[in-house]
Amino acid sequence: MTAVPLPGAPAVAAGRASGSFWHAAWYRYRRNRLALVAGGVAVVIGLVAILAPFIAPYGDASIDLTATLAGASGRHLLGTDQLGRDTLTRAIWGDRTSMTIAIGAPAIGLVIGVPLGIMAGWFGGLFDWFALRLFELFTMVPTILAALLFITVFGVSVWKLALFIGITLWVGFGRLARAQYLSLRDRDFVLAARATGVPAWRITIVHILPNAIGPIIVFFVQQVPYVIFTAAGFSFLGLGVQDPLADWGKMINDSVTYLPLDPLLVLVPIGCIGLACLSFSFLGDGLRDALDPTSR
Amino acid sequence: MIAYLGQRFLSLIFTLLLATVAIFAMMHSVPGGPFTFTQGDMTAAAMHNIQVKYGLADPIWQQYFKWLWQLMHGYLGIPFEEPTMTVNHLIASAWPITLTVGGLTIALSYTVGLLLGCIAALKHNTWIDSLITAVVSTIGVALPNYVIGFLFIEVFAIRLGWLPVGGWGSWKDVIMPVIAFSLYPMALMERYTRASTLEVTYADYVRMGRARGLSEPRIVTKYILRTSLIPLITIMGPWIPQILTGSIFIEAVFGLPGLGSYFTTASLHRDYPLIMALVLIVAALWGVCFILSDIAYVLVDPRVRLEGVSR
Which residues 252-291 on chain B approach chain A with CB closer than 8 angstroms? Predict the structure, then answer.
């Protein structure tokens, strides 16, 4: 089924003609050139993270003490750091670290928050009251402090960092899912499903979830730049990922002293953070306009 | 109104108590203690002495109630890291710095963001709109504030020598942290202002006003902005406590002796009294700002009644 929009026809009309929500969403997304480019860049960033062992020119911790702070050359396209580690290689492996945390943390927030939000919105009443108090409680506890406490107590690794940041993100997912279910709970299609005897768990998952998933996806993508910021920030303060793992924030931190010798050492990780954050935030904006057109 | 406020206030106190219980329990339930790392190689007897001195040998519920009792008398305890001071002193010396930076950040980012957002929306679909939106949203979201701060130091302090590298003392020390800290909230403010103003700009009653021949300034101030700025209270209100308690990253980059460094050291050294004080400050500020933004909403928007305010 292909939608053939009339020239100048509004997106919504074309969407209805195609008959499918995702079709219409893709149509709306495609019209936004900035979002399209950002999405492409985000995909490349993701692929580089997955394929890091195959495309990085050197091993992630390979040290070449004969070529420290070597500067850009044919052998090391972006130069080397104070231990002779290839900057391009470090940036590629740093992408893997950042992406693991950037996708992992919101995923953990989603897994905790969405089911709780769904139950709060669906059951209402006393359960909802308790869920709301819980949301309030976790909003009030300073997130950075909580994450730092976890780090000092349990130590850090890439996955732990994703977990600790994820724990601070679940409230947002919970609130969002609750609001969605609260507004969808009394719609006619839910009533119809109930009347025909569909069990409650099936209504919440098969009937309502597809209607609520758009804003949740958008929220997920919007969290990615925030997580990149925070994770790189912890590394920047020396509290995040530890050697020999590469991380953009840590690359900046490690190389600050050597900045006058080779600005690339700091500019490369800064560029990577900037590119990743920009592409994911424009991707998020594009998805919001495409999946959740009424919320603009 | 009074009854409503009282109810909200009571519920705030209740949540605050719950938050302190939760944090207290979490801190004490994890293995290790404040002195296991710094004074690890002590005899068991000496360790026990220290524990007794700081009241850590008591049962945990007793410790909590003791803390609560002292709190009600306005005393926050002795920080383990600097036993010659009290937590009250530490906070009193550090928070004004964070508050200064935070207050200026709010003033700068909210006014500039608001202005830019209004201009962009009123000049919708012109090059001014595209320029403002592109520039502000790019610099606001592309780089984290600590990286921007670091670049500022590199350019304005080291290369050009215009401003001090960091520290706290003269008015010049405030400039770079405030600007670096402002960029993100400014971008948010610009985006939300633009979006909510655009929504109103094409509303029927605005067109009606135009049709009746009202002057453009009157339409903009009385018809458009009066309605469009209301939602910003709920969107940007919750950011205020966050900004006023500072950013550990900004304070670390610029070497500001504010609250931020205590967030790091308190949790690194398991400094229980200091952690509790920080939690309390942030949580109380959050709660108060939520109540205030609800009240502000009722005051400016005649369509909303107190009974209708719920979250």
Answer: 252, 263-264, 266-268, 270, 275, 278-279, 282-283, 286-287
